[in-house]
Amino acid sequence: xxxxxxxxxxxxxxxxxxxxxxxxxxxxxxxxxxxxxxxxxxxxxxxxxxxxxxxxxxxxxxxxxxxxxxxxxxxxxxxxxxxxxxxxxxxxxxxxxxxxxxxxxxxxxxxxxxxxxxxxxxxxxxxxxxxxxxxxxxxxxxxxxxxxxxxxxxxxxxxxxxxxxxxxxxxxxxxxxxxxxxxxxxxxxxxxxxxxxxxxxxxxxxxxxxxxxxxxxxxxxxxxxxxxxxxxxxx
Length: 235
What we know:
The protein has helices spanning 33-48, 52-57, 64-77, 80-93, 132-145, and strands at 98-102, 108-112, 121-125, 128-130, 152-154, 160-162, 174-175, 181-188, 191-198, 209-210. The protein has 235 residues and is α+β, with helices and mostly antiparallel strands.
């Protein structure tokens, strides 16, 4: 049996009238060249003449200096959380040039390979987020394995970052009683992160240090920072 398909009509604006109400249900059909040219001409004219409100909203191109000035204003006007997030995104986009080599303070240390201005994010302390119970177990295991130093950084009461076996250059930063950096906990996308900030201007080949702020204990750990106001111990 053959069914007579209804003849497809055209609307007043030149577009094909779909009997079923949906173009996909009517299968493939060719479009005349005249109709195609008419549609292309209409779309080009619409693209070349944007509406008046769009023309008003368009702004002139901004110079690089003006963009940097806006970034400075944004960081000064917004709160500390917003400015920290902005700096953290900048740190991910362009990491500071750092290197680790032998230190006069203790074993290995982290050094700047470029000048770093004050109040800049230097590096993020990266590692595994673990609980206090796991941290205690790992500390004993590291002692049994002969690992002299454990690189654990407390984020809050429940979370500790362990960078002993999986971390970045931040774990090589040594303690100093008169440091040029400090550590700060920030929240990025509901996740707490530890970031090292610069307290002052840091020159090239200058070692990066911060205060470990160990809790006071009976068994003292000697401090070898050599600064004028050295406390003598880390804890």
